[in-house]
Please model this.
Amino acid sequence: MTIGTKNANNPRKCKQPIDEKSALLLENQSLGEHAGQEINGASFIGAVFNLSTTIIGAGIMSLPATMKVLGLGLGVAMIIFVAILTEASVEMLLRFSRVGKSVTYGGVVGDSFGKVGRVLFQLCILVNNVGILVVYMIIIGDVLSGSSSNGVHHFGVLEGWFGEHWWNGRAFVLFVTTIAVFAPLACLKRIDSLKYTSTLAVALAVVFLVITAGIAIVKLFNGSIDMPRFFPKVTDLTSVWKLFTVVPVLVTAFICHFNVHSIDNELEDISLIQPVVRTSLALCSAVYIMTSFFGFLLFGDSTLDDVLANFDTNLGIPYSSLLNDAVRISYALHLILVFPIIFYPLRLNIDDLLFPSARPLVSDNLRFSLISIILISLTFLGAIFIPSIWDVFQFTGATATVCIAYIFPASIALKDPHGIATKKDKILSIFMIGLAVFSNLLAIYSNANALLVKNAIPNA
Model:
């Protein structure tokens, strides 16, 4: 098919499939076949908010706890370092996508490593995204229905307002939230349809940050809190190993690779994707640094794995109860709006894994509904039976997430199926893989050792 004049002058990529909602299934079809069937392109701002919403999820709640481990100096440096490394890995991934004419992350992996590599990637997406969604539900349950840590119960918003009742228990609240909110949002079939909810989600994250910063500054000036540690506490070999436990959390905080292609496919101009990535990473890094600083400043060494759980006590300032509720509710609403952004690539990849030869998912309502129901149910059950977000982060962050963020992009550059990798790409790729494997093996070891010690104490 000959591409018309309109398409020749349009910066929109010709690799755009007829229906970007089913890009995973159509990426191997003829590029020219659908060149004349374009959709309205997504805007730069909409893409920035969608990608930023992908990045700013539950990971932000554990970043103050990473400051407790690393200290402010090393903690801020690590946030900046991981952001730079993420930008480099996304740039390599997109460059190889262009050359291989792949419109999905799975397609790039398949182009380099065949069906086995693609299936492995899709399994990583399953573990990572289900893990992230489980964390979202756990936090929402903590906020609304309360949580328990080290034998201390932290009251949820609904418990504080109405007391303990069956209808504000964790399981029932999550069930109602899933049916009334998550399920309808997850039914949207185009990621650009979520740009308004993504904008609101980022705004709610900023509200959380502003309130937290305001409380911390007031308490700092009235002398009720001190400046937190700048360096980590290193007293023995065990404390050194503990430093590596934050790596999976930091990697999880910046994971966005699985949505980059979906956002890229809907952009009006393909040259915008790199500015979108850089803008989103800069915005999220700034939010992360300020949240980490003010959260750790406010609670110091009492900072919990999920900092939202700290907002259930008297803050020692006027309107403490109101501010506590505002912080927790704003971020719970943020996570509710982020849910469909993470769910979108999960559903597409699982469909391609299970039904690689089926017709496009968007045109099969029965398959679309069944996959959505099964994945949402799996997430709901995970949130009911897994008690801590740190446990999920440590498992998914040290395995599937690090593969998606660094190991797969670096391996693609080293395999270099199209002969475009530079010497710099290969050096950076070896560094990424070496750093990822080394740090995450230490993180797994340290967390496994801590878990064994924790379980052994009650039996001592």
Notes: Strands lie at 147-149, 152-154. The chain has 17 helices and two strands. Residues 407 and 434 are 9 Å apart (CA to CA).
